[in-house]
Amino acid sequence: MDIDLKGRPVFVTGAAKGIGRAIAKVLAECGAPVAVADLDEAGARETAAAVTAAGGKARAYKLDVTDERAVGAAMDAAEKELGPLYALVNSAAILIPPRPFHTIDLKDWEAIFSVDVKGLFLCCKAIAPRLIERRRGVIVNIGSVAGKIQRLNMAAYCAAKASVIHFSKVAAFELAPHGVRVIAQCPGTTATDMVLKTITGGDPEALAKWLAGIPMGRLAEPEDQARLTAFLISDLASHITGQAINVDGGQVMW
Ligand SMILES: NC(=O)c1ccc[n+]([C@@H]2O[C@H](COP(=O)([O-])OP(=O)(O)OC[C@H]3O[C@@H](n4cnc5c(N)ncnc54)[C@H](O)[C@@H]3O)[C@@H](O)[C@H]2O)c1
Description:
By secondary structure, the protein is α/β, with parallel strands linked by helices. The protein has helices at about 20-30, 40-55, 70-80, 105-135, 155-175, 195-200, 205-210, 220-235, and strands at about 10-15, 35-40, 60, 85-90, 135-140, 180-185, 245.
């Protein structure tokens, strides 16, 4: 039962590294042409080059997801180079090192909501009319288990990710009659810079505390996330929409 995404171009944000990069690579392995979009242009180019070297098709786009005009332009360019988009994966997000909510700078709070919520909304808004017109397609919004449970000292990120989950459900409700599915994929603690640098600051003791909260006893690898994304975009998941699905080694069992 292979996952076949041939002829289904996918636009992936935050694909210069981490989970987004793994998603771009795995989708391409399944045959999807991939638009690699990220603020980090050099990283996006590296991802696209890796996909191409592995025999896939990819184009890199420098994109700030908080810029509505730029989002539309990048999708237009991707459709010109790769064909009509079939799916969107919103992986771009930021967070700040953990701290009590009453010590969070307003500018940090606003930056997190700007990228993690507004940017994701703008990308969904830009692709929705294209998918509605074609009466097919999938949006996978990368949320987090942090949007389902309380994480100590991560109020802004938790609130933003809860917004992603609930926005995705309403979007799924609205787009279902048009044949378009929307799913929130919720990673648990995954081995990327976000965890290994920003959250734990590279401190092995801090990382050990996170590991202790994972029943499966290991961090998720970015590829653990990417395999679910590929499944969700494929026809194997053709009756799944409006769900918030965890890939977290049992951290959060609902
Ligand atoms: N790593 C984890 O443990 C974990 C857990 C739960 C959820 N997530 C979510 O998974 C997704 C990917 O996380 P990651 O760990 O790969 O993070 P990461 O920091 O490794 O990668 C994030 C990417 O987003 C890009 N980005 C940031 N701001 C942008 C903007 N304005 N426009 C375009 N691109 C921008 C960055 O350049 C980077 O390439 C995020 O939505 C994150 O919240 C991660």
